[in-house]
Amino acid sequence: MIENAAKLPEMEPVMVEHKELKLIGIPCIGLNDMGGKYRHAKEALLSSAKHLPHIVNPQIHYGLWPHGPSQSHPDTHVYILCVEVESYDDIPEWFLRLTVPAHRCVVVANKDGNFEAAGQAVEAYLREKGLQTSAGDRTYTICERYNYEGEGFARYSLPLVD
Fold first, then answer.
1. In the chain, what's the furthest Cα-to-Cα distance?
2. Distance between CA 77 and CA 39 in Å, rounded?
3. Which of 65, 106, 135, 150 has the fewest CB atoms inside 10 Å of its own CB, making it the most exposed?
4. What is the pLDDT of residues 5-20, one digit of tens each?
5. Per-residue pLDDT tens over the stretch 128-150
6. C-alpha torsion 92→38→23→11, nearest 10
7. What is the DSSP annotation of 108-129?
8. Are the CB atoms for 145 and 98 separated by under 8 Å?
9. Which of 59, 52, 54 is nearest to 145 (CA)?
10. Residue 90 in 3-state DSSP?
11. What pTM, to 2 d.p., does this model score?
């Protein structure tokens, strides 16, 4: 198991354990031009991170999904691009603040950013190992991570059920 997903091998499922994460983020709402919205959020996080206190690593971004009925509609689907912070102190009020509880999950890196291929590898591993996942009562879960100085894109499973 890799704690906090330091460096991930390409297309190999890995169990990752995250401590509680304090994240600040920028929401992208609606599936129309989600790629453009993601690029704007990425650029905003990378450029503003130089001026923000408490950023753990400006080169690692997490993509989060809220859990609720709005996610099933293309116009109200929400994706939140986030960066980890040590503290919310002195973070501008316009950033969304999310605290994600500690959890274990299965993660697959894919340098090409192929969400489907990485997701299929995650699902196959979960089936093979008989692992169960659930959002439980979590309002938000990590769906992916970008390490711009490492493996690139990585797809996350829902948290593992103990």
1. 45
2. 17
3. 135
4. 557 899 999 999 999 9
5. 999 999 999 999 999 999 999 88
6. -160
7. EEETT--HHHHHHHHHHHHHHH
8. no
9. 59
10. coil
11. 0.92
